[in-house]
Amino acid sequence: HEDNGTTYTLESENVWRGNQKFSWNTIQSELDAGRPIMLGFGGPSSPYGFHMTVCVGYNTANDDYVVYLSDSWESEYIGRTLSLSTYNDFFAIVLLVQE
Question: pTM (2 decimals)?
Answer without folding.
Answer: 0.74
